[in-house]
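sry for the spam today, last one i promise. struct tokens for design, 451 residues
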């Protein structure tokens, strides 16, 4: 049996490791000192016992060396040490050996049945030897001793030599196991906090990625549509500047209005990005578990702030009621656009209406880019529990290409917006050589997304 609790405690405290079975060098020094004291004691007691039984004194003195030296292995084999102390009890040897052995046995990770059996055996041996010694001394002194006196004296001796070290060892062992249990719980809590912090960081990174994607979509929608119309009007302005100054003036005014609108939307978006939420600073802590908890809390706060920013941006975004103005801007740019609304008009949640508006906006922007001069048709259908959108354009009439760049992210952004709300998005060429964009967004998309 080994005192694993002491070894674990020493390792946790970072104390220098000792040789062989000792957890610390200090423990080794203590055991060596105790063993030397026990050897000296057992040597004199062995010499006295040898004289009493008529044996050579040197033999008794030599026998005391291994008996007292047994304390060197008390941490590794506490049961063996107690057995040695019980075995030499008739020779009245090993007082220190018995006391320290019982303490070590009770404090070690030894089954309680073995502790009880050895403690009873040690007490019984001490009781018998004390009674015999008392009777012998009383007889040698010529004093009369009753059985009650002998039993009382021997019982006090047995209890005095057995109970205190046994109880102290039980207390120390229980306290050590409690400390180990608390340390294991603290380590487990630290690991859980570390995992929580990692997961929170992952969630925060995911939220940041989603926020970047959302901002990219918003920037694309704002810049691409406005700038596309500005380029179309600028080309028309260049074509009619000399022929029709009045029309050129109107086109220049439209270009200026669209530029101001684009700058206003960009300024609002950048203002949201610059806003610094309260409590953005991560708290610092000296202790590791508190630091991990602070990291987890800060990461969770960042996730909530990203979600709040997303909801705020959606609430301030465009609405379906503004589609008529959007179509009017394309018409002013020279595009023939047919706009129709089916079903009873009603109000949807902010994200649904913003997404529907952006789908139509991006679809018209693509017509300006890829099908100059083509006619387009915009249809909005209010159905039960959903809103359906369709933007279809015919083939290009061979008009002048405005030379607008395309990053290829328009259709991807529309699909991401619609599918994020649980809707369906379909796009592709038509049989007549045009292109069609269709989307169906459920009315309960906001609640589903929040869940």
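last one done:
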């Amino acid at each position: 049996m080994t005192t694993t609790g002491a070894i674990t405690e020493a390792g946790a405290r970072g104390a220098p490791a000792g040789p062989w079975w000792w957890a610390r060098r200090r423990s080794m020094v203590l055991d060596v000192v105790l063993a030397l004291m026990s050897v000296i004691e057992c040597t004199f007691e062995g010499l006295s016992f040898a004289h009493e039984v008529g044996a050579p004194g040197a033999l008794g003195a030599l026998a005391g060396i291994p008996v007292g030296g047994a304390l060197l292995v008390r941490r590794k084999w506490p049961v063996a040490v107690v057995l040695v102390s019980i075995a030499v009890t008739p020779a009245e040897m090993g007082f220190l050996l018995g006391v320290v052995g019982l303490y070590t046995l009770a404090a070690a990770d030894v089954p309680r049945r073995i502790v009880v059996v050895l403690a009873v055996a040690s007490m019984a041996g001490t009781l018998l030897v004390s009674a015999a010694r008392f009777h012998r001394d009383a007889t040698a002194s010529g004093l009369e001793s009753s059985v009650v006196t002998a039993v009382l004296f021997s019982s006090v001796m047995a209890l005095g030599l057995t109970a205190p070290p046994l109880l102290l060892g039980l207390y120390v062992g229980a306290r050590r196991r409690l400390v180990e249990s608390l340390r294991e719980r603290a380590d487990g809590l630290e690991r859980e906090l570390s995992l929580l912090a990692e997961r929170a960081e992952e969630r925060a990174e995911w939220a940041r990625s989603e926020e970047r994607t959302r901002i990219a979509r918003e920037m694309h929608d704002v810049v691409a549509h406005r700038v596309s119309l500005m380029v179309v009007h600028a080309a028309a302005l260049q074509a009619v500047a000399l022929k029709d100054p009045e029309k050129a003036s109107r086109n220049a005014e439209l270009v200026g209005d669209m530029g101001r609108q684009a700058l206003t939307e960009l300024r609002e978006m950048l203002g949201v990005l610059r806003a610094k939420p309260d409590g953005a600073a991560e708290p610092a802590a000296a202790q590791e578990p508190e630091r991990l908890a602070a990291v987890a809390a800060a990461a969770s706060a960042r996730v909530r702030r990203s979600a709040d920013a997303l909801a705020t941006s959606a609430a301030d975004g465009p609405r379906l009621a503004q589609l008529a103005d959007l179509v009017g801007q394309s018409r002013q740019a020279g595009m023939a656009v047919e706009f129709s609304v089916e079903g009873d008009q009603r109000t949807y949640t902010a994200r649904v209406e913003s997404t529907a508006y952006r789908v139509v906006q991006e679809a018209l922007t693509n017509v300006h880019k890829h099908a100059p001069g083509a006619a387009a048709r915009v249809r909005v259908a209010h159905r039960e529990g959903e809103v359906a959108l369709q933007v279809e354009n015919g083939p290009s009439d061979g008009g002048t290409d405005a030379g607008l760049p395309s990053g290829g992210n328009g259709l991807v952004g529309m699909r991401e917006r619609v599918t994020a709300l649980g809707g369906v998005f379909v796009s592709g060429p038509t049989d007549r050589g045009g292109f069609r964009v269709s989307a169906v967004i459920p009315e309960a998309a906001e609640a589903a997304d929040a869940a």
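The CA atoms of residues 138 and 145 lie 7 Å apart. ok im logging off now
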